[in-house]
Amino acid sequence: MTLQGKVALVTGGSRGAGRGIAIELARAGAFVYITGRSTGLQQAGQVRGTLDTVCQEILELGGEAAAIRCDHTNDRETEKAIRQIAEEKGRLDILVNNVWGGNALPIGLEPFWEQPPAHWDNMFEAGVRAQLMTNYYAVPLMRKTKDNGGLIIHTTFWDRDKYTGNFYYDLAKNALNRMAYGLSVELAADGIAVIPLSPGWMRTELVLAEFGTDEEHWQEVEALKNTESTAYIGRAAAALAQDGGKLALSGIPQQVGALAEKYGFTDADGRKVPVFRMV
Fold this sequence. Notes:
alpha/beta; Rossmann fold; seven-stranded parallel β-sheet; 8 helices; 40% helix; globular; NAD(P)-bd_dom_sf
């Protein structure tokens, strides 16, 4: 429980990477706020989780969490969420910028001129800008906590600067990486590390549903043999938050598989899933 007394915010925390990160930060002792638009308890047969179901999971594990319904494309709602954290806790030590609206359309590999321009709104308004504005409101609160060795994580994609194959996706993810770099320079004097964190192929709820399986039976699907659970990126985030030397990594994209080797954690099934590499 080395994060005891720390306060974390995970945006887009109702499912996928956000859920995995929220749970693992709570396991390590942090009080975790999760934001998103999905509320209420999950119904039978429902693929997507909600903020309330994740909070329930955390509480059942003995952790502490609170849900704040927030549409991060609405600046007023984002500001209100940060203000609530300031009023209730008076500090923010860990910010995980995970909110992302870029999967509203299929992310294909067609050339740019054949891609729908609506990708821009989905990836930049509901992704890049949403994360930027969360930083805008959260950073002043984080800077007030001088003793925290703070951490901002941007969940992203990075593989040695290789082109991802989708023009808009590549542009958006590199924008997040560059945002983290710029913030790392501006926040270095405050001792706040800003790290882009790149997972491999995660078994999110939607990926499992696409292959007609679940977290208990995914090993029966050959195509999923090299995937990783969302706990893997969660454990990477928790390890970074606990690292007293994390400022040396600030601004530098980190891959979850490499951090597993560095810090010695494993995925939920005990494996160390190798670094994801693009073909």
